[in-house]
Amino acid sequence: MLQFNHKDILDITSLSVEDISLILDTAARMKEVSERPVKKVPTLRGKTVILYFYEPSTRTRTSFDIAAKRMSADSISLSGSSSSMVKGETLLDTARNLEAMKPDVIVLRHPSAGAPNILAKNLKASILNAGDGMHAHPTQALLDMMTVREHKGKLEGLRIAIIGDIAHSRVARSNCIGFTKMGAIVTLCGPLTMMPKGMESYGVRVTYDMNEAIRDADVIMMLRIQKERQSGFFFPSEREYSRLYGLNRERLKSAGPEALVMHPGPINRGLEISPDVADGPNSIILDQVSNGVAVRMALLYLVTGGARNADTD
Amino acid sequence: MQILIKGARVIDPGRLDGLMDVMIENGFISDIKPQGSLNVPSGCDCRIYDAEGCILVPGLIDMHVHFREPGQEYKETIQSGCMAAAAGGFSAVCTMPNTYPVNDNSQVTRFIASQAKKSCGVKVYPAGSISKALDGKSLSEFAEMKEAGIIAVTDDGKPVTNSLMMRRAMEYARSTGLLVISHCEDLGLAANGVMNEGTMATRMGLSGIPNAAESIMVLRDIALCGLTGARLHIAHVSTKESVAAIRNAKKTGIPVTAETAPHYFTLTEEAVQNYDTNAKMNPPLRTQKDVDAIREALGDGTIDAIASDHAPHSQVEKAVEFDQAANGIIGLETSLALGLRLVESRVLSMTGLIEKMSVNPARILGLETILAVGVSADITVIDPEKAWTVDSAKFRSISRNTPFDGWTLKGRAVLTMVNGAVIFDEMPAQV
Fold it and tell me: pLDDT by residue (tens digit) across B52-97?
């Protein structure tokens, strides 16, 4: 078995091609556990996983929680509003207190970019970044890569179009890095107001024309539009945004019939994606969610020492 | 009490440059003569410093510091700030008014002056605020604060957003004989930015502040300076566009001066890597192009002064998430050594550096610093060859927020004297 030498998973940048392949292969094997009538293996028995979510999350938190439980780890869930954060305790103080209770893994979702880095630097527990500000969402990128690989059999040479609010999206950043690292060709598309400076430095193409972006795309990944962005002068109206950058059945035709449609959720039906496309034959949105559990099981397994010191199955 | 400093290279830009002995008596310079010509009679109450290899200059002036008293004494008091200044070679500082309460009235000014009097002797010249409580809405009482001791007005930390109010502030400052120091920032454009805008910010997932957020306001304030004829000083210049605007304004005779801080000619945004909050300040660290432009502007005189923007913060404000962290770094104890790097890299001559750190700040603030017989002895002695490692734990400042911790630097102040009194020395004296 290949060696996995990461204590923490903070971003995709620090993972090598081999690391990513190992994670995806491990996740593919883990997936079978969720298909069993008794969905539990004893692999992480006696391990403690804290899910610390400073930001609201349904999918990611549930996914991590299920992943931990299917591996027989003990998982504890904390949210920003139920923690000492509301009493004015700093992130580092809270984390040190959690550390004193000897968790093996802390999964952190936080609105500030770099928050997981603070924990990783100061704590012995493994830190898994479940999304930090606009910075990174490595588990999402991994589950996206896993899902695409499952459907297309490969990642190399695929054309991936990522559409929407790139500027505020940690999903877009992590996917740009991940997919290009694995040899895919990424095109980003959105209005210039939502296109941060220097995206080309990731080795991706940038266009403001959605039709051009999705022409011959193998994968179209739609990003969520946060409605409150309208007040930051990012776009004039939801109507106009939807006209220029929404994915509907008509527009989908300019991509190949085999094109996969993805979305990290939660979806604004009718804004960035029309309901018929979200629920249509090209959509693999729910596969993404299923694979999220497998990827997170794989990561919990790998950062806690994998085959080296886990209970044998 | 006589003090004799022997054999230093004495530099008073435009007036003196040579190996000399300097005698100080009763607070005043009593004699300056070529090396070897001065001696003290035996048995007198005197102290002799052998300063061969050192440079003796008019006391350095840091025209932009934040001492946190009143209000945030856990970060810095006037006393600790003065100690840090003395250790950095500064005989005088100009303190910014954003204390709690704000220095927007004469009582606060008097309080600062009285605390300064109880400190180690560094001359503290407070700046008063332009607007009451820094709210940008109504003018502070400039004249009354001036009577109490302010020498400039500024809302530093914030811009005066309303252009009419800034115009009135400049007009009123001109008629009351005060300098206006401007923190140039278009808050709308800077939005919620926490570092320089660009590829680095994009990769780190942090909101950026474009260069234009600074230069737009520099251009506005230069226009208002032209309109009002007030003396305008642009604080902490960080971008190449601001440099171009100031250079252009000076060419057309507008009475504008400018300062930059050591971090803007030493560091780029790369220092923010790993979310280091000790590299977070406002304006933010920029790119190499900007650093190059700042250095060029120091060389050609577009930027008149080097000021540290000494901004103490504790762990409470800094050991937090990057976007939550307070802006600013301390600089009094590293400023001179970082300035000396400009001499090393031939951006400035030694004389040029002394102009930026003493002569020009004095001129801009309306103070006097010269080395001449009969004047009050404000003197800094620098050992330009002394290598040392920055250890923030040893700082006189209460705070530790510096991105230069662990750096090896060359050159430091070995003696600081104010009104003839030695307030800091690291040189052996013969008594």
Answer: 999 999 999 999 999 999 999 999 999 999 999 999 999 999 999 9
Q: Which residue of B has its CA nearest to A168?
A: B205
Residues 6+ positions from B263 with CB-CB distance below 8 Å: B281, B285, B329, B331, B338, B403
Q: Which residues of chain B make contact with A90, given a CB cutoff of 8 A?
A: 316, 319-320
User: Is the CA virtual torsion A84, A85, A91, A93 positive or negative?
Assistant: negative
| CA gap B385, B340 in Å, rounded | 10
B275: left (phi over 0), alpha (psi -120 to 50) or beta: left
Contact A92 B319 (CB under 8 A): yes
Contact assignment for B205 to A115 by CB distance below 8 Å: no
> Are the beta carbons of B166 and B108 closer than 8 angstroms?
no
Question: Which residue in the list B104, B309, B378, B383 is annotated as catalytic?
Answer: B309
Enclosing H/E stretch for A130: strand A126-132
CB atoms within 10 A of CB B226: 16
Residue A139 sits at φ, ψ, to 5 deg, of: -70, -30
Comparing CB atoms, the residue among A118, A133, A232 nearest residue B205 is A133
Neighbours of B179 (CB within 10 A): 23
Cis check for the bond before A266: say yes or no (omega within 30 of 0). Answer: yes
What CA–CA distance (Å, rounded) separates A22 from A145? 12
How crowded is the C-beta side of A263, counted as CA atoms within 13 Å?
26
**What is the spatial distance between Cα A106 and Cα B229, in angstroms, rounded to a whole number?**
60
- At residue A297, φ and ψ (nearest 5 deg) are -60, -45
Kindly report whether the peptide bond that precedes residue B70 is cis, defined as omega within 30 degrees of 0. Answer: yes
Examine the residue annotation and report whether B309 is marked as an active-site residue of this protein.
Answer: yes
Instruction: Give pLDDT tens digits for A132-187.
Output: 999 999 999 999 999 999 999 999 999 999 999 999 999 999 999 999 999 999 99
Reported as a single tens digit per residue, the pLDDT across A230-276 is 677 899 999 999 999 999 999 999 998 999 999 999 999 999 999 99
* Prediction ipTM score: 0.93
Choose the mutation target among A90, A176, A177 for the interface with B, i.e. most B CBs under 10 Å: A90
